[in-house]
Design brief:
The protein is an alpha/beta fold and about 260 residues long. The chain has two domains: about 180 residues, Vaccinia Virus protein VP39 (Rossmann fold), CATH 3.40.50.150; about 60 residues, rRNA adenine dimethylase, C-terminal domain (Helicase, Ruva Protein, domain 3, Orthogonal Bundle). Helix content is about 35%, strand content about 20%. It is elongated.
Length: about 260
């Protein structure tokens, strides 16, 4: 493994916290279970702690790193199995790594300041992804696995839950990182469905309804969605319009979307 170099100071604007605890890194590798033929893409490799722990198990690893200095640091390893893309992961086309017989696997320590928009970006490529393993702020992880009618349940819970199953695998203390963040982190596994359990006939409308409902989550669905959903739609979908967004599960949002979509034609 390439020796880590702490001469590189973490850059606050990139939300950098580098994982350095070897025992935790080993645990993460076990959760990921890398295989030789995997098409593996790492987001935010940082100083390469997870990168160089994964490399012995795979034939090739691609890493996406926005920080030019860190990208150079990783390039210095001259490992023929490692390809560095120095760019913003929010602009990366993840379907480029897919071949006709195999989907990609995505791993990474997601920067806290862009983790949510990055997750939404990845959702748009879910059909090309086998699974994802990420270190995230604990609060974001709790929202990912949030259950209906709980405080953690929100837009992220619904949108990720629509396309995938999510499991919170482990909590990671601040001391495992350099510099130590002020919050606890979590390691999650996201596995996109091969067949969606509930299909929205108009995904754009589904997304709009979910976003609008949670933008005003203290209001009833009748009030938060009045510009999109009529009382007749609620009645036809057999959904109580006096519920709040946090009380409607993924199936309910899909059902409401499909009723509204039928009436738009």
């Amino acid at each position: 493994m390439m020796k880590l170099n702490f001469l590189h100071g973490a850059k606050k604007r990139f939300g950098q916290h580098f994982i350095v605890e070897s025992s935790i890194i080993e645990t993460l590798v076990k959760f990921i279970m890398p295989q030789a033929e995997d098409i593996m893409i790492e987001i935010g490799p940082g100083l390469g702690a997870l990168t160089f722990a994964i490399l012995p198990y795979v034939n090739h690893l691609q890493a996406i790193e926005l920080d030019r200095d860190l990208a150079m640091h990783l390039t210095l390893s001259k490992d023929p199995k490692l390809t560095i893309h120095q760019l913003d992961a929010l602009r990366y086309d993840f379907k480029k790594g897919v071949d006709k017989n195999k989907k990609i696997r995505v791993i990474g320590n997601l920067p806290y300041n862009i983790s949510t928009p990055l997750l939404f970006h990845l959702l748009s490529f879910s059909e090309y992804i086998q699974d994802m393993h990420f270190m995230l702020q604990k609060e974001v992880a709790e929202r990912l696995v949030g259950k209906c009618s709980t405080k953690a349940y929100g837009r992220l819970s619904v949108m990720v839950g629509y396309v995938s199953q999510v499991a919170l695998l482990s909590l990671i203390p601040p001391t495992a990182f350099h510099p130590s963040p002020k919050v606890t982190s979590a390691f999650v596994r996201i596995v996109p469905y091969t067949t969606l359990p509930f299909v929205a006939s108009d995904f754009s409308l589904f997304s709009k309804i979910v976003q609008q409902a949670f933008n005003q989550r203290r209001k009833t669905l009748k009030n938060s969605l009045h510009a999109i959903v009529t009382p007749a739609h609620f009645e036809k979908a057999e959904i109580d319009s006096q519920l709040r967004a946090e009380n409607l599960d993924v199936e309910g949002f899909v059902k409401l979307t499909n009723i509204c979509s039928q009436d738009s034609f």
